[in-house]
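Re: weekly structure request thread

Next one in the queue (182 aa):
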Amino acid sequence: MRITTRGQLAVSAMTDLALRQKMRPVALSTISARQGTSLSYLEQLFGALRRAGLVDSTRGPGGGYTLARRVDQISVAEIILAVENLKSDDLQNLGAGQAAQVKSMTGDLWSTFNLRVMEYLQSVTLQDLVAQQLEKGGVMEDAAPAVPAKPKLTPKPRPLMARVGVPNSVFALGSMPLLQRR
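Done, posted below.
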């Protein structure tokens, strides 16, 4: 079994959605901003998640995605299987002779391993991940990440030139009598 970045990002995005969908659908653009993932990539993932019946989409202004089921009814395994192209056997890239040799040498080791990993992933629900995030101080509102404000630059006050008899502009200089200019 191979879980790629695609599966990891899908689990992360689904956790983000579960944390923030309380009041209204969550736009992918906000998930994209929080997760630092491209919007087009998230659209691909959520298309697969929608086809798997894990999320519902709402179009139009105020639209976005919501979970299709309760958080305690969605397992991590379902999310990963929805977006990954997993087969029951990781020997799919080997030739028939090589796959048979590997199976005969290791017995059911890899099949059992994959089965145990899948059992574990099925035992972890989206609710478990949400609870972990809340323990860490995860945010519940649907807001984009806080962007640090640029510090306001205040101009430094220039020292006042308080010279007596010195004009403060070209116009003042021009209006001075010629004798006074020297």
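Residues 142-149 have pLDDT under 50 and may be disordered. The radius of gyration is 31 Å.
Next request, please.
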